[in-house]
Amino acid sequence: MSTKTHYETLADLFMYPQAEYPERVKEVSSKLENSYPEACELLSHFIKLLPEHDLRMLQEIYTRSFDVQAITTLDIGYVLFGDDYKRGQLLSHLNREHLQHHVDCGQELADHLPNILKLIAKLEKGDLLVDMIDEILAPALHQMIMEFNDNRVNQKHQAYEKHYKTLIETPSDMSAINTLYQYPLKALFTVLKKDFSIAETFEQTSDFLINITKENELDGGKKVFNKGITNGELIQ
Q1: How far is the C-alpha of 6 from the C-alpha of 78, rounded, in Å?
Q2: Could you tell me if 31 and 6 are in contact, meaning their C-beta atoms sit under 8 angstroms apart?
Q3: Nearest-angstrom CA–CA distance, 122 and 128
Q4: Is the dihedral of CA 115, 135, 127, 35 positive or negative?
Q5: Could you give the CA distance from residue 235 to residue 108 in angstroms, rounded to a whole number?
Q6: What pTM did the predictor assign?
Q7: Dist CA 62 CA 51 (whole Å)
Q8: What band does 191 get if pLDDT is binned at 50, 70 and 90?
Q9: What are the backbone angles phi and psi of residue 75, rounded to the nearest 5°?
């Protein structure tokens, strides 16, 4: 494809699924078929695993992949930097670019993956586009895909269970279905590799498992602090 409009098309893969989502995935795959056969093969695995006739399960899989007791997150600034000040700087820069290029971020933050893809579709060739791919999107995607490794998933489950004392029930008894969102992420990375000269390996700048563990510990500390105030234990 000579233009970058396919990145806006790819953004559809990472939107919260509604009833028409399976058909939209098939449409995305169809549009990529001629230029990106490897990505289409990955999407075919995704389509086979999709619970097409069970919207509630599909939405639960999405939520468990990216939102609640999640495998990873679609907020790529958090993937790269966690709660470090660098994420705030990135959000500030992205907000400016979204505004300038008329990208509607909806209710999501500027570093939400679909919003990044919509922005890339509108950027002219130049240093900004290169930096967006090399410094932000490609390394974040690489880390997000790694989070779907079975060992990493199990480690996160243990961390969540330790903090919450229980795990939210997985949407399916099949682990392949519960981790199916690795395939659109891999498909996107495959498209990036063909369109841009990106590295095969990246320096890890943050660790999702460590970040959520710290958040859980801080959250637990806040609960103890608030309970102490309620009971009068912290009032001098």
Answers
A1: 25
A2: yes
A3: 11
A4: negative
A5: 39
A6: 0.87
A7: 12
A8: very high
A9: -85, 95
Q: In the chain, what's the furthest Cα-to-Cα distance?
A: 71
Stretch among 73-77, 104-108, 114-118, 125-129 having the lowest mean pLDDT: 125-129
Which DSSP string do the residues of 171-199 spell out, in sequence order? Answer: S-S-HHHHTTTHHHHHHHHHHHHHHS---
Separation between Cα atoms, residue 32 and residue 43, nearest integer Å: 10
Q: Is the pLDDT of residue 231 over 60?
A: no
Query: What's the per-residue H, E or C state across the chain?
Result: CCCCCHHHHHHHHHCCCCCCHHHHHHHHHHHHCCCCHHHHHHHHHHHHHCCCCCHHHHHHHHHHHHCCCCCCCCEHHHHHHCCCHHHHHHHHHHHHHHHHCCCCCCCCCCCEHHHHHHHHHHCCCCHHHHHHHHHHHHHHHHHHHHCCCHHHHHHHHHHHHHHHCCCCCCCCCCHHHHCCCHHHHHHHHHHHHHHCCCCCCCCCCCCHHHHHHHHHHHHHHHHHHHHHHHCCCCCC
Q: How many separate helices (H) and strands (E) can be counted in the chain?
A: 13, 0
Q: Return the pLDDT at 220.
A: 54
Taking only the tens place, the pLDDT of each residue in 65-81 is 999 889 999 999 999 99
The answer for residues whose C-beta is within 8 angstroms of residue 132's C-beta and 6 or more apart is 116, 119, 120, 123
